[in-house]
Amino acid sequence: MTQIELGWGSGPSETYEGLAARFRPIFQRIGEGAVARELDRTLPHEPIQWLKDARFGAVRVPREHGGDGASLPELFNLLIELSAADSNVTQALRAHFGFAEDVVNARSAERRQRWFPRLAGGEIAGNAWSEIGDAKQAAFSTKVTRNGHGLVVNGAKFYTTGSLFADWIDIGASGEDGASLTAVVSRRAPGVEVVDDWDGFGQILTASGTSTFTDVPVEEGDVIADEDRFKYSAAFYQLVHLATLAGIGRAASNDVAKAVAERRRTYTHAAGPRSSQDAQVLQIVGRVRGAAYGAGAIVLKTAQALQRAFDARFAGDAAVEEAANAIAELETAQAQTVVSNLILDAVTLLFDALGASATRRSTSFDRHWRNARTLASHNPRIYKDRIVGDFAVNGTPPPYQWRIGQP
């Protein structure tokens, strides 16, 4: 069935249904095993391999280079659909899509020619950016230096989401001169160790744990200056979270509707002989679905702003590009608190449509709240309304990039 027939509204383009049709059987297959993986804590190696085999990670690569040439709204709509199947998988691929977006944006023809064949062949990238402990905001402690054989990377990272499943790892580091840069290394290079020690209560299957790098070789062409990366990257990475939240909302909506339809037990003081005929219960189901619908619509609207930023990158006008990037970041900030609130409310509210049996671990309904709460804790939303208000009142542009650590 099309997105319209399912009641989620029109897709982002006239060609979207044809694009999505390639991946929906895989999404369905992923969704069928989502609860079992959650209950058994089985990492999604197989689902990610299915997506690699289908070259899902190349949807943004231009057609002439072996990809699908999808627009950003098309990409984010696909991520909503994938997240409805299993939000862990989307989160595990978030770094890859950010890396692929950077390659698509690269002004260097050599870099594009280096990476397009790899992406089109199904290879994926993980990330290694955040540092914990005594990490500073100003610079990475992870270093790229030169030894007698060439460039090497040394350091330790946490929140290295997706790296356990990846072919490559995109690492934030400092150069010998202290400048910020990124280095891409093979996941299987000597000196790379990735450990699944993520102990969060949500998104538990993303392997978002520790990676260490000990004299890991890196090619000269895979070291990129920070200022050369795509400028709307903060907005892009945040919008992946919001698309994932919208997908969680759809999954919660589908789960609660199915559970209500199948429920036989009811209460003496209920408003109907069965839950499926109880107006108050149906109202709850409708509110959950409406929240998911609204979240998805907001994500697609925000994705249009990112598409304008992408288009402006190649327009040859620095002022136009700067303005488009600022608006993309602003629209993402405006969307963040609203989408987060919609979905956090929905995944709590769904339990009001069911009895206490809905809290049984075997239903795994709690995964929706745990996953949504974890995602909504990224890139603290408490700052976003202030940033938006500062723009509205004072015209202050939002910050593009930020780092966490000790001042």
Automatic annotation (TrEMBL):
Q: Which InterPro entries match?
A: Acyl-CoA_DH_C, Acyl-CoA_Oxase/DH_mid-dom_sf, AcylCo_DH-like_C, AcylCoA_DH/ox_N, AcylCoA_DH/ox_N_sf, AcylCoA_DH/oxidase_NM_dom_sf
Q: Which residue ranges does the record assign to the Acyl-CoA dehydrogenase/oxidase N-terminal domain?
A: 36-123
Q: Looking at the keywords, is Oxidoreductase present? A: yes
* Keyword terms of this UniProt record: Oxidoreductase
A Pfam family in this protein?
Answer: Acyl-CoA_dh_N
Q: Which domain of life is it from?
A: Bacteria
Residues forming the Acyl-CoA dehydrogenase C-terminal domain are 241-378
State what protein this is by name. Alkylation response protein AidB-like acyl-CoA dehydrogenase
